[in-house]
Amino acid sequence: MFVLLNAFWSSLWSFLGGALVGGIAAFFISKRMFEKQLKENPPVNEKMIRAMYMQMGRKPSEAQIRQIMKSMGQ
């Protein structure tokens, strides 16, 4: 009986330790992947909005740019 309990607790601790290490590793890997994606594909900024307006043949006013930035922030 004691041997079975000892095996149970050792396997439980192994499982919990593995889950903890896996969770920490997954956190740092996903954080690194997210930062890499942000670096490769930066969020839209005012300069990009101006360029899009110019490609459409329009000159945007500052109020339009601020309005778009505000709507994207929501």
UniProtKB/TrEMBL annotation:
GO CC entries: membrane
Main subcellular localisation: membrane
Keywords: Membrane, Transmembrane, Transmembrane helix
InterPro entries: UPF0154 (IPR005359)
Domain of life: Bacteria
A Pfam family reported for this protein in Swiss-Prot or TrEMBL: UPF0154
Membrane topology: Single-pass membrane protein
Listed name of the protein: YneF family protein
Organism: Erysipelothrix inopinata
Lineage, top ranks: Bacteria, Bacillati, Bacillota, Erysipelotrichia, Erysipelotrichales
